[in-house]
Specification:
alpha+beta; globular; single chain; Glycosyltransferase
């Protein structure tokens, strides 16, 4: 296999410039979800889908320039310090800026989470980098007051984080420990299971990875959505490349064949396709993979196509023969329907929802494949990804899809400017998503169809962040490893 030339550094001045409005939560009422709790894990005791206030252990409603506390976990740093209905207006002496609400589905970058979310996340970083003392200005019973919360002084993120960063390593290790100690919280959705298995492999937890691989070593049913054979194939391929365990190869090979069935090889076959009473022929893109196992539903999607492509590339590394006809069609589809700016829509070059998960996964696919002649294309995707750095939490159905693939993918870009652009902007967000007991939890976002908090509030995002932050000692192909590492 030819060695891929190092990606040329791209000028990112325009994409790094501040632009647009700030819209981190769909609306002030959070679509009515402030008072709609999840039924999974320790968050069942939280009265609704609230903003997690980092490792303080508090959850709150977001207002324009403040947070209103609605839950405090027993035994957390905020326990006994913050009270229900305390309104937090400043941290470490700095008043919170203003936040603007609204959904955001367009192509333009610039919409971020400036305001209370970013301000508190930065204050947490400053406090943890000193003695751990976090001072909050609150309004309690109509009167101003100050509250001091003692966080653990685990240090700051390094200038090169997550690489060469003790804080990143420590957070990833604690997150992995949480995943191993809380099997009862796993709800079993395929996104969660796939990233959990990859996190185990990435952290060298081979006994647990083998247990999962053997339990998951049967191809999914013929009617399962494309996600099922894709996530299973990606995990089993990485597992085989770590262990050489040939027991998983028949399942891996069968899943690759299943993914051929969800690909549109001839759009004319779907000229009469309908979904929800609407004609869908234009949404069946040649070479794309659909939602359903046999491309049922409403057409092809960029992320399911990329998942299939990654499955095929990893399976080939395991010695399984892949049909070049199908693979080449998929690359043609993805390249054709990426906007010239590097934006990747839900189905088209233009479209809805966050692009960063698709962009990150796209980088991973191309780096694993090592196909010649793709440097210019990847340069556009990387550039577009940094332009979309404000949209990490704008997932469709599951925000953790964007967290994991985006933060992992940008690290494979080889572009230090791009890596810093994405990670440095989202440092405060990462701090805010951390829980007091070592996990990460889904945060409210701008998508009207966001369901992650009610499907896998902690396990999926925690596994995603183990992969994103635990990259100092990479073990996986999707982390850039070209040869099988020693155990």
């Amino acid at each position: 296999m030819q060695s891929k030339p190092r990606t040329t550094l791209i000028t990112l001045a325009l994409s790094l410039a501040a632009a647009g409005s700030v819209l981190a939560i769909a609306d002030p009422d959070n679509l009515g979800q402030w008072e709609k709790p999840t039924k999974i894990g320790p968050d069942q005791e939280v009265p609704g889908f609230l903003v997690n206030l980092g490792p303080t252990g508090a959850r709150a409603i977001l207002k324009e320039s403040s947070f209103v506390v609605k839950h405090v976990f027993a035994g957390s740093p905020a326990d006994g310090q913050l009270r229900i209905d305390d309104e937090i207006t400043a941290a470490n002496g700095k008043a919170f800026g203003k936040h603007t609400f609204g959904k955001f589905y367009g192509m333009q970058p610039g919409a971020g989470y400036e305001g209370p979310i970013m301000d508190l996340g930065e204050a947490i970083e400053n406090s943890e980098g000193k003695d751990g003392a976090l001072t909050l200005d609150v309004v309690r019973g109509g009167k101003p007051d100050k509250v001091k919360i003692k966080l653990e002084a685990i240090g700051r993120f390094s200038d090169s984080f997550p690489k060469r960063c003790p804080k990143s390593r420590e957070i990833a290790a604690r997150a992995m420990n949480y995943l191993l100690q809380r099997p009862g919280e796993r709800c079993g959705i395929v996104h969660e299971k796939g990233l959990l298995g990859l996190a185990m492999l990435a952290q060298g937890e081979m006994k647990e990875a083998e247990t999962l691989a053997m339990k998951w070593n049967t191809p999914p049913g013929g009617k399962e959505w494309t996600w099922h054979p894709s996530y299973q194939a990606i995990f089993l391929a990485e597992y085989f490349l770590q262990t050489g365990d040939q027991r998983v190869l028949p399942t891996l090979e069968e899943n690759c064949k299943r993914l051929y069935l969800s690909q549109v090889t001839e759009p004319e076959l779907y000229k009469d396709a309908m979904h929800g009473g609407q004609p869908q022929a234009k949404n069946f893109l040649k070479g794309g993979n659909g939602h359903g196992a046999r491309c049922a539903g409403y057409g092809t999607m960029a992320i399911t196509t990329l998942m299939a492509m990654l499955s095929w590339e990893l399976a080939e590394d395991c010695g399984i023969q892949i049909e070049n006809f199908n693979r080449d069609l998929a690359y043609g589809c993805i390249h054709t329907h990426t906007h010239e700016s590097g934006y990747m829509g839900y189905r088209f070059a233009t479209g809805a929802y966050t692009p960063v998960g698709r962009q990150g996964l796209n980088i991973i696919v191309h780096k694993v494949a090592n196909r010649p002649g793709t440097d210019d294309y990847l340069g556009r995707v990387i550039n577009g990804m940094v332009a979309s750095k404000t949209r990490l939490n704008d997932g469709h159905g599951d925000n953790a899809l964007a967290w994991g693939w985006a933060l992992l993918g940008i690290q494979l870009s080889g572009n230090d400017t791009a890596i810093r652009g994405l990670f440095d902007y989202n440092k405060a967000f990462i701090n805010m998503a951390r829980t007091h007991d070592g996990a990460f939890v889904i945060q409210p976002g701008r998508n009207l169809a966001e369901k992650a908090y009610y499907m896998s509030p902690r396990i999926h995002p925690t596994a995603a962040m183990v992969l994103a932050l635990g990259t100092d000692r990479p073990r996986l192909r999707i982390q850039g490893v070209r040869e099988t590492p020693e155990s």
